[in-house]
Amino acid sequence: MSNTDPFIATFQQWQDIFMHRSLRKFIHFARESGLSMSMIGTLFHLSKKGCAGVTDLGDHLGVTSAASSQMLERLVQQELILRTEDPIDRRVKQIVLTEKGHQVLDEGIRARQGWLDDLAETLSLEEKKLIKRALDIMINRANQLEGPIE
Amino acid sequence: MSNTDPFIATFQQWQDIFMHRSLRKFIHFARESGLSMSMIGTLFHLSKKGCAGVTDLGDHLGVTSAASSQMLERLVQQELILRTEDPIDRRVKQIVLTEKGHQVLDEGIRARQGWLDDLAETLSLEEKKLIKRALDIMINRANQLEGPIE
DNA sequence: CTAAATAGTTAAGCAGGCTAAATTATATAG
DNA sequence: CTATATAATTTAGCCTGCTTAACTATTTAG
Prior knowledge:
The structure is a homodimer of 150-residue chains. Chain A is mainly alpha-helical. Chain A has two domains: 22-112, Orthogonal Bundle (Arc Repressor Mutant, subunit A), CATH 1.10.10; 117-144. The first copy, chain A, has seven helices and two strands. Chain A has helices spanning 6-33, 37-49, 54-61, 65-77, 99-111, 114-121, 125-144, and strands spanning 81-85, 93-97. The first copy, chain A, has a two-stranded antiparallel sheet. In chain A, α1 (6-33) packs across α5 (99-111) and α3 (54-61) packs across α4. The radius of gyration of chain A is 19 Å and the shape is elongated. At the A-B interface, α1, α2, α6 and α7 of A face α1, α2, α6 and α7 of B. The structure holds a DNA duplex (30 and 30 nucleotides).
């Protein structure tokens, strides 16, 4: 397990800092918005997938379709998702985010990132450019990773 | 709310990818290890702080000391933390991570990062160096941010 | 048309995580 | 010494999130 790649080592170090800074804000956001981890995971998944069925979403999180159905019912009541019948196969429901769902998700992202603004202020223009270049590379490659995020 | 700093914009983009990739693994890790978000947040906090009291840890997460006490009892039973009496003020308990606690935390970090190994493989040596330089800058600045993570 | 498979929902029950309130033990102020 | 404040725990109760099992509706295979 000795990963000697200094790139990976540095990344782990950064991730450690990142998690420590943002995990707590994330927990607070979840509590205040009344969303469970499963709900947040579902909203995230929907924001990428666009649309999914009840069982799909349950599988994605590793829970039964019954649990998924109950959780989605709560999200419908909170008006964060829309649940409509698939006109082609009327057994399945099509779940999509509402506008409000998108907004809540954005809030959650911003909640975890306040400290990054502070960090940005300590950076020179040169440094920002360097970091932006680095991030752009990673974003590109991550997008090409042929995403079976499952 | 129009944040025009391209650095911040890029960072948000990266964070979005990062969250989408790792949130699900994080949820699975939590379920499989039988740890709640509060527990994981507590372990994280202890790994940085080293030592804390019951009420401190509760405050950190925004729950009552009763809730904190109950959660810590479970962590003690799982042998992830050590709870000893403060010899100076015998009302307070000193909570620290056990070796096992550190290990579980590391697992959690690695669980969320498998895909980064894949990403690393798509990078040239040049690119890795560039990204490492960028991360090193951010790590440094983050550490200097005079940490009131609260 | 009938039988089997699939998608989703509902119901009952259990464990976890939280709260408020009461309790115990210790420390501090007057 | 006494009264008050503080740290932690225990208890009772509530709500959530999950499971399994039963049920409904629809599609697909023969």
